[in-house]
Structures are given as C-alpha cells and as structure tokens.
Specification:
With 520 residues, the protein is α/β, with parallel strands linked by helices. It has 2 domains: 4-287, HUPs (Rossmann fold, 3-Layer(aba) Sandwich), CATH 3.40.50; 344-497, Isoleucyl-tRNA Synthetase, Domain 1, CATH 1.10.730. It has helices at residues 20-38, 54-62, 67-84, 98-113, 168-177, 185-196, 225-230, 232-235, 243-249, 262-276, 307-314, 316-326, 337-366, 383-399, 403-424, 433-453, 458-467, and strands at residues 4-8, 42-49, 91-94, 117-127, 132-134, 153-162, 182-183, 202-203, 205-206, 222-223, 253-258, 283-287, 290-292, 295-296, 333-334, 370-371, 496-497. β1 (4-8), α1 and β2 (42-49) form a beta-alpha-beta unit. α13 runs antiparallel to α16 (433-453), α14 (383-399) packs antiparallel against α15 and α15 runs antiparallel to α16. It is elongated. 48% of the residues are buried. The mean pLDDT is 94. Bound molecules: ligand ME8. Ligand ME8 binds at residues 10-13, 21-22, 24-25, 50, 229-230, 232, 257-258, 260-261, 289-290, 296-298. The site of ligand ME8 has 21 residues, from α1, α7 and β11.
Length: 520
Amino acid sequence: MPARFYVTTPIYYPNDRPHLGTAYATVTADALARWHRLCGDDVMFLTGVDEHGLKIARRAEEQQMTPQEWTDETAGWFQEAWSSLAVTNDDFIRTTETRHVRAVQRFTQAIYDNGHIYKGEYAGWYCVACEAYYGAAELEDGTACPVHKTPVEWLVEENYFFRLSAFADRLLEWYTEHPGVVVPDAKRNEAVSFIRQGLDDISITRTSIDWGVPVPWDPGHVVYVWYDALVNYVTAAGYGVDEEKFARWWPSVHHLVGKDILRFHGVWWPAMCMAAGIPPPHQLVVHGFLLVGGEKMSKSRLNQIDPVALAADVGVDALRYHLLREVALGSDGEFSYEALVGRYNADLANNLGNLVQRVATVVGSKCGGVGPAPRPAGQGGRIADVAAEVVAGARAAWSRFAPHEALATSWRLVHETNAELEATEPWKMAPGPEVDAVLGDALEALRIVTILAAPAVPAAAAEIWRRLGLAGAPDDPGRGAEDGGDLGWGGYPGGLEVTKGEPIFPRRVPSEASPARRSR
Ligand code: ME8
C-alpha cells in the first residue's frame, strides 16, 4: 500500500497580494508534495486563505468593500500566484466556504459538548495584524506588538474560553511519546517550553465583530479567527462529512508552518484536536523567515517582493530552485536578487544547463544524434557509483524535510558528470565504444538527475527529459519509488534520439534592480 502524505501550508491572510515569504512556504510544500508523488505516495496538498477576523474586516473597510467582496477578489490573487509558480495543490480552502463554516461549528460544538469551553470576560492587549492577544510583558516598549512593532489595542470582551490550561500534561505527554513530531528539534523544544511555562485558557469567541463563523450554541458570538483557521486542516480532510476521506488523511498530516505560528500549531492545535476527540497532527515542519536587509519580509513592513513579478523576470524554475536551495529549512535567510542570479548562473546555467548542452552536442557530433546506452554498474564507469550515493542521499534529505540538502546532493551528480566529461574529453575522441561508454553514462546520469530535480524545476526537467528522447515525464508518479522506481542505474535504454536545443538556462546578467521590488 502506498504511504500517505498529507501536506499543508498555513492559510494566508488575503489582506494583500502574496509576497515572496508566503511563496517560499508554498513552493516548499509543493516540492515536498511533488517528491512524495514521485515516490508513488498517496498525496494530498492543501493551501488556502484565512478570510475572517478583524484584520480582514478593517482592510475591506479601507477599500470600501464588504469583507466578502474583498476576499472574493483577493483569494483569487493567491490562487493565480500559486498557479503561476507551478504549485500543484490538490485543494484550495477558503474559510468562508460553507464546508469550512460547518466544520468549524461541528468541531467547536464537539469541544463544547466535551466540556472544554466556558463563558467569561476577557481584557487584554490585542495586535490586529497578528489577530492575537499579548501579555503586557511581551510588548515592545510596553506598547507595541513584538512581531509587527505596531501599537496594540486594549480590548475587553465577554466571550467563551477554551480550557487550554487543562491540556498541559496531555500535551507534554504527547511530546514525550512522539519525539519527532516537530522538525527541526530546536522548534520542538521551543513548543515544549511554551507549555512548561504554563498555559492560560484562551478566548475563542468575539462579540466585537460579526465577520466570522457564528458560535453554534450562541450565535451572537463569532469564533475567534485563529480557532476558526486551524480547523481548515480537518475541513479539507472531510471532517464530519466524509468518514472514509477523513480516515484516509487524518492524522497523517504534515503542517508546514513558519516559526511565527509555532505556538498556534504546536500548542493550541494539538490541544484542540484532543479536546474535540480526534488524534493530533502527525508532524509540524517549521521553517524560518526570508529576510530583507535583516528584517522579516512582511506585508506590514512594506519590504515585500512580488514573487509573480520576480518569476516573470528570472523564470519560474529559477525562482523555485533558489527558494528551495538557498536556505536550510528551519533557518532564516536573507533574500537578495544578486544571490538568486549568482546561484542561477552557477547551478542552473553553468552546471545542469551546460551538461545538457554538452551531452546533446557531442552525441550529435560523435554518435549521429542517437544516445548510446550506459555501462552497467560495476563495469568501469565511476558515475554509476556516484549516482547510487546521490540517490540515497537525496532520498534521505527529502525525508528529513531538507530540500536544500536534497538539491545540493542531487547537483553533486551534475558536477561529477561534468568533471568526468572534462577528464575524458569525448569531444576529442574518434567515434567508437569509448565515446559511447562515456556519453551513455552521462545520459544516464542526466536521466537520474532530471527525476531528482523535477520537484524543484518541473518545467526544465520536462524539457530535458524530452530532449533525451525519453517517454512520459520525469515526474510521473512512482518514478522515484525505492522499490520498482526509475532511480536505479541503467534505466536509459540507449538508441534514443537526443535533441539539441536552445540553452535551457541561458546565463543571466544581473539587472540593476529587480522589477519585483514593490515600491509604494
Ligand atoms: O499567520 N518568510 O497568515 P499569514 C518566510 N492566517 N515565510 C513567511 C514570511 C517570511 N518573511 N512571511 C510570511 C497567518 N511567511 C495565519 C495562518 S494557519 C491555520 C493560519 C509565511 O498570511 C510563513 O509560513 O500571516 C508564515 O507562518 C505564514 O506565511 C503566515 O502567513
């Protein structure tokens, strides 16, 4: 039976266009989904938008629109952006959809019926941008949100509370029993230390606004936007309406989230699941921030970069590759256009692109354009051994949620194959078995690396595959499977016509300023 891989991104606030930070999270989830499909796994990839709450209501008001009109328009911005970045989500959830409103009501009702919700009064410092309360001690200079640096507001409300405090022991037990539940480890420790510091009950309804999901047992209240948003992950899995679907996807879920929302996903969400009587999620994969000039790129700081304009400038595959390769998942990384172009030229133009071009040229001049078969593994070729190591290394890295490492390892095969060609110089040899052996190995290495690269650079991989004369597509499901897949040495049959074309990754000269930087 194939393994199940359900992967989610945060659902983003559609208060503005997506920026490169949200694109980073989405492309990363996409690459993971693509890798798992390649491995033959049963995959569901969910992303979407978080439409309720004060932040969206105010933003709509500024635009003189109703919140629904505003999010109907802006949800489309996200869908269009992801499709232009070759993101292959299987579902896109909007929290205003009926399926979600019903799921939130069902989920909250279950928690209420299980006795974990009570009525009370809440007063506190609220950051609208975070849609979250802060304790006075957490504020910057006593007045500003620690994340957004903008002034917080004092809110007093009568509302319902979730008895989070009662779940501390169960959460700690859960963390002890599932040591790998948060990747990377440091983030697990952070979540555990939140819990150890003591948990306050959380206010989960609002009466101050009506832009939200009505509380089923007290419709004068709406569900707090975070409590509503987290439920999206089970809505899309069929919670409460499709038992079979739910059993298929829950709890085998991997939530990819930024480090800013670890507390919601690593403390609240598992407790909410426990309270509603369903198992907590399987794994949280926590990524770091893209920074600009050392600051988090964000909508409220006006330092955002438009990923769609950037991709139109540098190419979709080039942008995807850079996002996945540049920064280790879990760490913060400074984004720079110069670094993107530098890496593009080094890895894509000069390495992979050059290998494709060289191989096709020499196959054209020495083999009449027909690719020779590789040498069987263990019969003289060094590259077969490298390929075996690379495939094992890349596989291990993908399964550790380390796309940057998977790609670095995969590119080792490109480097070594280029080095082998430089050492043997088949372009100087007379046609014959020696040239065939070298080129057959190079073609086979290219075939393997094309499959490995496909989750990052899907369009280029498809084009290389076509030029090698291979049937199907490099990312056909199952090609990367450990058993019965196509990543073993010897899959290139030989005898196929190899096509030479324009450079797949033409070298780029960095333009003075990327057109993607938003000026406002
Ligand atoms: O928090 N670098 O939505 P949001 C990397 N609606 N990733 C970044 C980033 C940056 N500079 N800026 C944003 C919300 N992100 C809630 C989520 S989930 C049930 C509800 C990414 O629009 C990162 O993944 O503020 C972060 O966690 C997410 O966008 C926050 O998006």
